[in-house]
Amino acid sequence: MTLIEILAQPWNQYRQGIIFSIQKGDFDAAIVMLLGMCKVLPEQYRPVLPPIPSAKNLNEDFMLKQDKWSWCTVSLQSVEDSISRWIHDNFDRVAMGT
Questions:
Q1: Rounded to whole angstroms, how far apart are CA atoms 52 and 65?
Q2: d(CA 69, CA 53)
Q3: pTM over 0.90
Q4: CA torsion, points 21, 23, 27, 29, in degrees to nearest 10?
Q5: Rounded CA gap, 59 and 75, in Å?
Q6: Fewer CB atoms inside 10 A, N or C side of the chain?
């Protein structure tokens, strides 16, 4: 239980940073914070995130901000699902006494 409480603070900091970054339209910062949230999880619980969008030409560059928004939306859901799974697995272990 203590580990979950210890990790709650970094996750909350990342969440606040992600929300602030997205509100300001800084999707690069939100992407970095989402990747950081993954690193706080034990390796077996880390989600596999889609490739980070990048532009190879001018036409793709016009859509890059929208693509990064979509990446952040999908990735945030994956990260939050992984955090929830990890927490519930730990609660189950504590409840079973292992």
A1: 12
A2: 10
A3: no
A4: 0
A5: 24
A6: C
